[in-house]
Amino acid sequence: MTTLGAVVLLYHRVCQLDRDPYDLAVTPEHFQEQCRILSQRGGVIPLEELARSGRGVAITFDDGYADNAGAAREILSAAGLPATFFIASGLRERGDEAWWDRLEQLLLESGFECPWLDLEVDGRPLLLDVRSESARARAQAALSRRLRPMRPHAIDAVLDAIEAQLGIRSVRRQSHRWMTAAELQQLAHAPGVEIGGHTITHPFLSSLDAPEQRREVEGCRHDLEALVGRPVRSFAYPYGAPDAFTDATVQIVREAGYTIACSATGGTVLRDGNPLRTPRNTVGNWEGGQFEAWLDRISLH
Hints:
The chain is α/β, with parallel strands linked by helices. It folds into 2 domains: 3-94 and 178-299, Glycoside hydrolase/deacetylase (TIM Barrel), CATH 3.20.20; 99-166, no CATH class. The chain has helices at 28-41, 47-50, 66-79, 89-94, 99-109, 133-147, 152-166, 181-188, 210-228, 247-255, 288-299; strands at residues 3-11, 13-14, 25-26, 57-63, 83-87, 116-121, 124-129, 193-197, 234-236, 260-262, 269-270, 281-282. Strands 1, 4, 5, 8, 11 and 12 form a 6-stranded mixed β-sheet that branches. Helix 5 runs antiparallel to helix 6 (133-147) and helix 5 runs parallel beside helix 7 (152-166). The longest helix has 19 residues, at 210-228. The protein starts with a strand and ends with a helix.
């Protein structure tokens, strides 16, 4: 197979956060620099055109944070760049923060005196030291890894147990909210914007049986099409790691009517590669020069 140098970029958020343990955010200043460089280099194309293009770059966003419809859309529009936004439809309707944001809030933002967390995670006991700031950061990282492959209701149960032991409750922060239906509709009709599916509840799909995966994959497309009033044909696997989806998942995505689906495995796009296994490259919070050097490196591999 021949590598063409076509590259798909993966973003999550464009905002300034006081704390970003998952490295999800690119500041508006850095994103503006990155978009300026992409505009100068040329060749930024819609994701749907990438498979037929010899070379180029596609821009994608995952999840559906409100800043996607705000700062990200405004900067993209000013630069004249197209982008695809993959939306987890049920997270917006549910309204609560994502489980990973809720975990970060409980352990890294909240004030509490509890020295230990005594939990059961995926059927196994787990004792975590939370007596210091560094210990809490380690506990947050360890729990994040363990919770990720679990089913959404099981993750919620662990977070509820943490709240009970700490004696506090998480809150819905404006800085971490999902875009509203009106914001999503406005985003969907902005020039150069495509809306794609990202499941309903953002599960680790490989942990679900086939009927559950099908409900997540098909249900998301139906939800989004009803909301934005246009076909949804692109999809992104939640988490995007090689173990986050299976061959059976890819088949379910195909049968659900999606024509391109993205992972987060990194690398360039191959002309004769499977469009339902399109690799993406996660962009960091880099200033322009660092971003351009990184872009040159990945385009050569």
